[in-house]
Amino acid sequence: EAKGKRRNPLHDFKKTGELMLIKVNKTLEVKTKLLNTTEQCAKRCSRNKGLSFTCKAFAYDRVTKRCHWLSFNSLTNGVRKKQDHAFDLYEKKDYVRNCIIGKGADYKGTISVTKSGIQCQAWNSMIPHEH
């Protein structure tokens, strides 16, 4: 990347406007803090800075300038979506994309079958093929 230019931390997130996630499962974690920009929220989520969980998404309240870091995303069981005009939802692309980039070493998505419907081999298995 060019000298002096910083990568925008929001590039790692998929934005859905006017949406908030509500946890039905009480074991899922959320942490909130006042922050001025979505970029600051994204940076903290990406680094898991000050969080006791792996941040998979955050919701930014545009009215109160409050960031809500989430240990879950829209694909997590025990979560429901809620239309809310004050919020924008930002989900880490690694956790919501359904395609493999490169060799798939960092893939955290939900696809577990091939295009033809065959169950994928588990990462920790050497059967039927070696990695």
TrEMBL record:
The family database entries (SUPFAM superfamilies) matched by this protein are listed as: Hairpin loop containing domain-like, Kringle-like
- Per the UniProt entry, what species is this protein from, by scientific name? Grus americana
Do you know which CDD domains this protein is assigned to? PAN_AP_HGF (cd01099)
The record, for PANTHER family, names: KRINGLE DOMAIN-CONTAINING PROTEIN, PLASMINOGEN-RELATED
What sequence ranges are listed for the domain Kringle? Answer: 98-131
Record-linked PROSITE patterns: KRINGLE_2, PAN
Q: Which UniProt keywords apply?
A: Disulfide bond, Kringle
Bilayer-spanning residue ranges? none
Question: Is Disulfide bond one of the keywords UniProt gives this record?
Answer: yes
This chain belongs to the protein called: HGF factor
Alphabetized GO MF terms: endopeptidase activity; signaling receptor binding
Domain (Apple): residue spans on this chain: 8-94
For whether the record's keyword set contains Disulfide bond, the answer is yes
User: What does UniProt give as GO cellular component?
Assistant: extracellular space
